[in-house]
Amino acid sequence: MPRGDTAFLFDLDGTLVDSVYQHVLAWKEALDREGVELSVWRIHRKIGMSGGLFANMLLRETGLGITDERLARLRQWHAEAYNRQAAQDAVRPLPGARELLAFLTEEGIPWAIATSGRMQTAQHNLEALGVDPSKVPVVTRDQVRYAKPDPDLFITAAQRLGMDVHYSLVVGDSIWDMLAAKRARALGVGLLSGGYGQEELEDAGAFRVYEDPADLLKHIDEVAARR
């Protein structure tokens, strides 16, 4: 398989940008503001799935009523809290993220970003990475019917590249990324930089697991097709 036939489809939070725990704290602030008491660890376990599904599951665990108005408030308050942290330079690229993307570009290997976040929060992360959405395919929650663990984000990203998703590598830090990769019939590559363990990622479908983007770049020959 020539390199041009293989694409890298990246998750964003926890995969390329060190932002998982900022999202956790932002959701915690939003839930507290709504009067929903939930432990931080329960929030972390759901980071990476779509915001709507995430909020539904959290509220279901608390036994509170779920309304469109409540979900809309939670999403808005989460975005406000997260963007406030991002504006304070609390969100930065993970080690090796920029170098990995630069390597793929130099080698002519197509890549795109697919995130369950909406552009309202993803914009800060893209700016931190130096990624211009007008030049690189970036698929956000705003652009698909369903987000992770459904495969829509990664399928759409592959289509934007003009690639077959079955020959693509989905790189993510959560079990939701790996489940979405399996449903898209793509290969999943897991990173530990979002807080999930190696066995969790492998059980969810990852065929390789690395520490972070820098570690993936160091072992890129294990996953990137040869010329």
UniProtKB/TrEMBL annotation:
Domain of life: Bacteria
Keyword Calcium among UniProt keywords: no
Pfam families recorded: Hydrolase
Alphabetical UniProt keywords: Hydrolase
One GO molecular-function entry: hydrolase activity
Family matches, as PANTHER family: BLL8046 PROTEIN, PHOSPHOGLYCOLATE PHOSPHATASE
NCBIfam families xrefs: HAD-SF-IA-v1
Name by which UniProt lists this protein: HAD family hydrolase
The organism of origin for this protein: Dyella halodurans
